[in-house]
Specification:
By secondary structure, the protein is α+β, with helices and mostly antiparallel strands. It is about 65% helix and about 10% strand. Helix 2 packs antiparallel against helix 3. The longest helix is centred in the middle third of the chain and has 81 residues.
């Protein structure tokens, strides 16, 4: 479309120079009609472009063919193949070579070559005024120079723009491939976790039955210390069973477990309270600034990844963890701070990549990887930085629309 606007402006300027400065008579009404056609075509193309729909290959072929047709008509009305601007066919062919498939680019070459040959034999000759009759060669060379500069400038400008668009597309495709690989990795991890949860169900149930039997046996009931230890063992097994149930629910295998409608404050307050009771941090500074409250649907996967962030902060800073809940427009913000050693610069540079961790143990680095990918699927973002002085700061930003009851019902 931009090239066509250049063509319209250039044709109008050329017609004015030839008609009024050089005094060469042109069929202005017919040539103006072609210019109006190009303007109308561009207006239609602009309206089509504003629909934000993908432009298909057939449309590109049709548009370039119409441009070649319009140029052919203008050359026919102004001297045919003897017109120095006939080299502008190369501009359309170059664009076609970059934008079109091979067969379409070859077809464009054949059409443009056929038009060139046709203009050799069929055209409307220009009638030069007597004072220019002897300067035909000079005028032709001058026109060729103008055409060369114009075509070269436009080729550099537009081919550079097209190459930039192609690089952006390649980067986008590479990003999509990376995301697909990461999601495949997550699927494999989910299958492994689900399988492990199923396998653990049977031994946990067996242990629970044995402990219940022990609690009723006189030899154990007579010893208060053993009774207390058996009760503690039973509570830990119950906790393991709840963790297994949570894993199955997060993978979509739990039966009878529907999404729970709640509010943002209810969700985060309950989440922090549950994590505090399970992990028993020495010092947890919790500040909930989210207002006004909104209705959401509690997501077990989101709850688990937030726990991962909390756990990482507690592991890095056992003596203090800070959690701040806030709102930014229609986003839920969860900031987690710690007083640990902070992130290594290489970890910050590759945030969210699997197995990027300073922990020297197998499987490290998957927690933040899962956090980044789950948040990304929900339309959110994860940012991390080191705090001034000491410690790390992790910010989770999540669109409330992705957790709204309407969004979950639609899904």
């Amino acid at each position: 479309m931009q090239l066509r606007w250049f063509a319209v402006g250039g044709q109008v300027l050329t017609m004015l120079v030839v008609q009024f400065w050089l005094g060469i008579a042109l069929p202005v009404p017919q040539m103006a009609g072609v210019i109006l056609f190009l303007v109308g075509l561009n207006v239609v193309s602009l309206l089509r472009h504003r629909q934000n729909t993908e432009i298909n290959h057939s449309e590109l072929v049709a548009e370039l063919m119409l441009d070649v047709t319009a140029l052919t008509i203008q050359l026919y009305l102004s001297g045919g193949a003897s017109n120095p601007f006939i080299s502008l066919y190369l501009l359309q062919i170059a664009l076609g070579a970059v934008l079109l498939e091979v067969w379409a680019a070859r077809l464009l070459v054949v059409v443009a070559s056929g038009c060139f040959i046709g203009l050799i034999f069929s055209y409307r000759p220009l009638v030069l005024p007597p004072e220019l009759a002897g300067e035909l060669l000079t005028l032709h060379i001058q026109g060729m120079f103008v055409c060369f500069v114009l075509a070269a400038s436009l080729l550099v400008f537009f081919i550079a723009r097209i190459n930039r668009n192609l690089r952006i597309r390649d980067f986008h495709l590479a990003d999509l491939r990376q995301r697909a690989a990461e999601e495949d990795h997550i699927v494999r991890m989910g299958l492994l976790a689900s399988g492990a949860a199923h396998e653990l169900g049977t031994p946990l149930a067996t242990l629970s039955v044995i402990l219940n039997d022990w609690q009723r046996m006189p030899v154990f009931r007579s010893d208060p210390d053993l009774v207390q230890e058996i009760g503690e063992m039973q509570s830990q097994i119950d906790r393991c069973k709840s963790i297994v149930t949570g894993i199955l629910m997060s993978s979509g295998e739990a039966r009878g477990e529907g999404p729970v409608k709640t509010t943002v404050n209810g969700f985060v307050d309950g989440l922090v309270a549950e994590w505090r009771s399970h992990r028993s941090p020495i010092a947890l500074d919790y500040d909930n600034r989210f207002s006004p409250d909104d209705s959401i649907v509690s997501d077990p996967a989101l709850k688990q990844v937030i726990f991962n962030v909390f756990d990482n902060a507690l592991e890095a800073s056992p003596h203090w963890v800070g959690v701040t809940i806030g709102r930014r427009g229609d986003e839920l913000l969860i900031a987690v701070d710690d007083a640990g050693p902070g992130f290594d610069p290489t970890i910050l540079a590759e945030l969210g990549q699997p197995y990027r961790s300073t922990k020297q143990r197998p499987g490290s680095g998957l927690g933040l990887f899962l956090v980044v990918n789950v948040l990304r699927k929900l339309g959110g973002t994860v940012t991390a930085r080191n705090r001034i002085g000491r410690g790390a700061h992790v910010m989770l930003a999540l669109p409330l629309a992705s957790l709204s009851p309407g969004a979950v019902d639609a899904a």
